[in-house]
Amino acid sequence: MKKINKTKLAVFASIIPFCVSAQTGYSIKGQIGKLNKPAKAFLLVHNEGNQQLDSTYILNGKFEFKGSVSSPMDATIRVKHDGIPDEPGKKTGFDVKPLLLANENISVIAKDSVSHAVIEGSAVNAENEKVNAYLHPIYNKFELLNKEFQQQPEAKKQDQAYIQTLENRAKAVEKEIFDAKMSYILKNPNQHMALMALNSLLGPEFDAIAMEKVFVALSENLRNSYLGKQVEGKIQSVKKTQEGVQATDFSQPDIYGNLIKLSDYKGKYVLIDFWASWCAPCRRENPNLVKAYAKYKQEGFEILGVSLDKASDKAKWLKAIEDDKLTWKQVGDLKGWDNEAGLLYDVKAIPMNFLIDPTGKIIGKYLRGEVLDKKLEEIYKK
Predict the structure, then answer these.
(1) Half-sphere exposure of 328 (CA within 13 A, CB side)
(2) How would you classify the pairing of strands 329-331 and 302-307?
(3) Cβ distance 378 to 364 under 8 Å?
(4) What's the rounded Cα separation, in Å, for the pair 330 and 308?
(5) How far apart are CA 136 and CA 143, in angstroms?
(6) Which residues are 51's β-sheet partners?
(7) Strand 26-32 with 62-67, pairing
(8) Could you report how far apart the first and last alpha carbons of the chain are, in Å?
(9) DSSP letters for 216-257
(10) CA of 344: how far to CAs of 189, 278, 306, 361, 371, in Å?
(11) pLDDT tens across 61-94, in order?
């Protein structure tokens, strides 16, 4: 059994009524014991996709940073206790404190190490602590499952039935976490934390249509914030290829230069297959596609292959088509990962496919091997 991943509590890293940002800027005043020059404090701010680094010497244990952010941002304070330069490539134990930076007057106080510092005067960080304390017992259930597994004898660890019970319990914990976050979002549509919580729920296969409804219920300030724009972008990107939505039409030249449109297949079930000649998993999957096509072609099933090969690899693409005996239409603009259809369908890994029904709706994706065959059998045996 693989170790059950524990989602870091940091995904819940910010909560604050947006009115806090009405202050024109932030002030961070630090007190780290009695440190003095050459001791130095560094502030790293992840501000709207950019990293901003500030630094100042520590005098009598004190340091201060000032600036402004458009909305709460992740930040880290590091204290370097001496003047010895860092050695590139050498692992060093850094004295650091992560925090959430909003336009507030913040105090960072510790006796010796900033990693042990107490943050005062920050509503954003105080609320974050409360939320983390609330979530910790739920996340801890993952650790308990891992601990239980490690304590089992080797024979038990190989018992598939036992492993399945662990996986089932892990899924139950995941649902409990999802429900806890969603409950917070719905109850606190004006809190920045609600936006952070929503962002943390946008996993690889989230329901974009459902999440869009949650997103539009958030306050306008949240939706228009930097993170809000990112969340909206993720939702819209996934929504384009969500099962149940109309597939976006596109056209690309086939191997003879003839322009082929996805809409040419309207009235049939068609599998859009994104692949490339250099993609080993794609080439291993091709025999499954050949088998499925031979089995259901007479029923009206079609495949439209879309190549992510580059122009310099056109000969390899054509050879792969011949070698793998791919007899259905193949198209490609030979722009590699910048293939326009691939960008439209947010393809970030291959092989990737989308099954389109006769009305033009997406009814499946990630269909490989037996999964594809089972889906086609359900369709054509109705």
Answers:
(1) 22
(2) parallel
(3) no
(4) 11
(5) 11
(6) 46
(7) antiparallel
(8) 38
(9) HTS-HHHHHSHHHHHHHHHHHHHHTT-TTSBPPP-EEEBTTS
(10) 31, 22, 12, 15, 24
(11) 999 999 999 999 999 999 999 888 877 776 667 8
Neighbour tally for 159: CB within 10 Å: 13
Q: What is the pLDDT of residues 99-153, one digit of tens each?
A: 999 999 999 999 999 999 999 999 989 888 888 888 899 999 999 999 999 999 9
Q: How far is CA 36 from the centre of its chain?
A: 42
Sheet containing 50-57, strands listed edge to edge, beginning at the edge strand earlier in sequence: 50-57, 40-47, 73-80, 95-101
Residue 30, token pair as written in the block: 């630090």
Tokens representing 95 are 């004295």
Q: What string of DSSP letters covers 99-157?
A: EEE-SSEEEEEESS-GGGPEEES-HHHHHHHHHHHHHHHHHHHHHHHHHHHHTS-HHHH
Q: For the sheet with 352-356, list strands across it.
A: 329-331, 302-307, 270-275, 352-356, 362-365
| Residue 59: Cβ within 10 Å count | 11
**For 44, phi and psi rounded to 5 degrees?**
-110, 120
Cβ neighbours for 369, distance < 8 A, ≥ 6 positions apart: 285, 288
Q: What is the largest CA-CA distance in the chain?
A: 83
| DSSP conformation letters of 13-48 | ----BGGGGGSS-EEEEEEETT--TT-EEEEEEEET
Per DSSP bridges, beta strands 26-32 and 362-365 are: unpaired
Instruction: Report the distance separating Cα 210 and Cα 237, nearest Å.
Output: 14
